[in-house]
Backbone:
């Protein structure tokens, strides 16, 4: 029997939270309806009453609520971020997911009993960086960016006492998690504070000569034929002309899916597996959580592990471009 990692699932709404719990999540992560949350979209997220209700429901089922205060504080006024820490503690959150050092300092100083998880937005990719945050702010978990190989993840785990959380399924980012200079340049908005690489206000669709052009403001991202599937325009997943060949220059539109290597992640000592997607529907949350609950339970049992065919089929409909990848976990050229 292997120690099962915690299954951490997204909750962009109270309904999504409820469906994650029903499907077997060990923890849910959510955000407030303000700029402290990197998924601050209209119609999503929680007010205080909903946080209280969500905490009560999660605790009744033995699950945890993790509050994402994962944007960087405004240089002119850090007050909203510091007050959000106090609100989260008062509302009963089990842990905070934080990147900003001032927010971490405030939390560790004023709420020493509240668990702190280092957000992926902090881009801590080495055990030395993670240990820095542990020594200075007392973090108990770090979420690794999606740029490390499996052997690098294992190396980090061997050299830190901090629990390590990795992404298991969902959108894949190969840039500097939430701080992409490319999308900032093209849209005029920071992905960290806008909550998305391609804000809707910057997206342009234009029909021209039987094709559809996708742009971010004036930057051409892709050009689609009449019957070709159209992905949401993101700079790193666009097709560009490079040395005479038009193709995906940086990253293909596909979703991270680590079901194939789940036992190896567990053996490496990963303590939590995160499902990406607070901006996704409650149906997405429910279906993906059910699959991953079954997979983790099997991988942590004494039974032989192999991903079931229906798991991939059920996840495929929620994957970007209906394609899966192991991302940086599998680099064939190494």
Residues:
């Amino acid at each position: 029997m292997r120690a099962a990692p915690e299954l951490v699932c997204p909750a962009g709404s109270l309904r999504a939270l409820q469906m994650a719990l029903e499907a077997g999540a060990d923890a849910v992560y959510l955000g407030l309806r303000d700029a402290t949350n990197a998924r601050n979209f209209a119609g999503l997220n929680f007010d205080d009453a909903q946080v209280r209700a969500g905490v009560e429901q999660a605790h009744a089922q033995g699950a945890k609520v993790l509050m994402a205060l994962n944007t960087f504080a405004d240089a002119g006024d850090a007050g909203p971020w510091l007050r959000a820490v106090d609100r989260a503690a008062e509302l009963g959150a089990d842990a905070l997911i934080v990147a900003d050092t001032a927010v971490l300092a405030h939390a560790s100083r004023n709420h020493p009993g509240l668990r702190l998880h280092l957000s992926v937005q902090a881009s801590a990719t080495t055990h030395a960086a993670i240990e820095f945050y542990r020594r200075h702010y007392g973090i108990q978990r770090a979420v690794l960016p999606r740029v490390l190989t499996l052997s690098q993840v294992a190396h980090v785990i061997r050299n830190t006492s901090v629990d390590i959380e990795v992404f298991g399924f969902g959108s894949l980012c190969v840039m500097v998690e939430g701080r992409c200079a490319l999308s900032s340049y093209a849209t005029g908005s920071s992905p960290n504070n806008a909550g998305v690489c391609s804000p809707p206000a910057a997206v342009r669709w234009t029909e021209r000569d039987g094709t559809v052009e996708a742009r971010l403001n004036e930057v051409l991202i892709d050009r689609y034929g009449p019957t070709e599937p159209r992905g949401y325009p993101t700079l790193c997943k666009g097709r560009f002309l490079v040395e005479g060949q038009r193709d995906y220059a940086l990253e293909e539109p596909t979703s991270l899916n680590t079901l194939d290597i789940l036992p190896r992640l567990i053996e490496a000592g990963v303590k939590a597996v995160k499902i990406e997607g607070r901006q996704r529907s409650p149906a997405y949350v429910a279906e993906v959580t059910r699959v991953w609950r079954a997979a983790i339970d099997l991988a942590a049992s004494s039974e032989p592990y192999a991903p079931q065919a229906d798991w991939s089929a059920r996840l495929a409909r929620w994957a970007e471009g209906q394609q899966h990848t192991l991302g940086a976990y599998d680099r064939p050229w190494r």
